[in-house]
Amino acid sequence: MIPRYLVDFDISELPAVETDVIVIGSGIAGLYTAIKASERHRVIIITKKALLESNTRYAQGGIAAVISEEDSPEYHRQDTLMAGAGLCSSSSVDILVNEGPVCVQELITLGTAFDVENGELALTREGAHSHRRILHANGDATGYEIVRALSDQLAGHSNIEIWNEHFVIDLITEGNECIGALVQRPDGQRVFLRGLATILCSGGAGQLYRYTTNPDVATGDGVAIAYRAGAVLRDLEFIQFHPTSLCYPGAPRFLISEAVRGEGAVLRNVKGERFMEKYHELLELAPRDIVARAIVSEMEETKSSFVFLDITHEAPETIKHRFPTIYDTCLGYGLDMTADWIPVAPAAHYMMGGVRTGLHGETSVHRLFACGEVSSTGVHGANRLASNSLSEAIVFGRRIVERISELSPLERTGEGIHCQEAREDAVAWPIAERRLELQKLMVRKAGVRRSEEGLNQGLNELRRQLPIFNAALHTREQWEYANMLTCALLLTESALARKESRGGHYREDYPQRDDAVWRKHILQQREKGMLEEIGDDV
């Protein structure tokens, strides 16, 4: 069994720091929620690297909200439910589509400069959206512009303290109440950070896979520490693989935004044939899981490691204006989007599941909240609609702050909490090698396409790594690997349990969606194991 705590400690022997609100993570969820919370509370933001290093920074396409008079919350709702493949929470989706526009206006007030055309906000359309409702910034650098604006708001803020290069090893709980976190400082000192409320905004787990659009920091820490603290997890089997990441020698798996297809790009196999008409009536704008599997099928059929994305029929100036970041990045590797077909392949992109929350971001552990990709609010169901993630982060971040203002003072002190285990030294564990092995294993056994045989093989191999939890872990790399192993095990177990195909979970041995049996959620909790839940799903 995965232990309650990763390291040995005694709260009474640790230096203690007190604050009102602890925010773990510095993407859009962490920054926005911290700013809102700071209106009434003292806030400490913890980030394991620098403030601007998060998945949000790399979000290109944009943020979805109903702005156009031709659009409506009902249209946005229908699109979200369609993409979510029967597992969205109707109440969560209603909140997102109705409160999103107000929150986007607040981002603008906070300094985010979205692109404007003819004096109005520029809107584009992405896959599975029925209307143009995607706001973008600097063409294809939306995420970076948002975190830039929010970070500027933090400068000199009297109520916000930023802890860069700090690592949250575990959450500290007493009973079923989170009273703070065990944090390692850059100098190696550990502290007990005590708070009225703790908000997980730690992002996703793309690093579970060898090929991912996520930065190195996306190692599933928030999901793992919440699981160890007793929180309920939901829907971990649903992983969105972005269909089009750059696949070129010497280049990272750089995201080629869905907005490129939204603006008319087509997919071709290595023979030059356009192929999406074989797979879906929406062609290149079909839901991401369908496009990703179609690409994998074409790659196998043509014995190639990639397909091509072709937007050469568009005017060069249009491409350069609309996608300056993608254009410049590709050009840096000798690829000219205006003249060349761009080699692409699927890569792990987004985790639909996570720590289960209510409609105000509250988890099953009192005083512990989750926001952004680490959470499972019910908005995304089995497959996230493009650009809904940034909207979700701000909508539910605001709701979390509303709920925190209702909390009673924290009375527990944590005195007496300790962990003393007989652990072997982990110095001999080749962590970098094991991390790579885990990533390769997840691609092969729990990737775009899955089967009972492959998942069982993967689970057995992962279980052979369990002894690391009996080891004395001292470094960030070791804790990250332990968190990745935790997430990989839970994801594989839930993927094995769901004997159907739906959204971001595709089983070759159960290729059909089975609403009669599987229109329900798989829950996982450390002490109770695997459970099932029927929600207010549509």
From TrEMBL:
Top-level taxon of origin: Bacteria
Keywords assigned: FAD, Flavoprotein, Oxidoreductase, Pyridine nucleotide biosynthesis
Residue span(s) of domain Fumarate reductase/succinate dehydrogenase flavoprotein-like C-terminal: 435-525
Origin organism lineage: Bacteria, Bacillati, Bacillota, Bacilli, Bacillales
Pathway: Cofactor biosynthesis; NAD(+) biosynthesis; iminoaspartate from L-aspartate (oxidase route): step 1/1
Organism per entry: Paenibacillus woosongensis
Cofactor annotation: FAD
Name of a matching Pfam family: FAD_binding_2
Family: Belongs to the FAD-dependent oxidoreductase 2 family. NadB subfamily.
Enzyme class per UniProt: oxidoreductase
UniProt key word rRNA-binding: no
Chief localisation class: cytoplasm
UniProt name for this protein: L-aspartate oxidase
Location of the protein in the cell: Cytoplasm
E.C. code: 1.4.3.16
Claim: Oxidoreductase is one of the keywords in the record: yes
Role of this protein: Catalyzes the oxidation of L-aspartate to iminoaspartate.
Catalytic activity: L-aspartate + O2 = iminosuccinate + H2O2
Domain FAD-dependent oxidoreductase 2 FAD-binding: 20-390
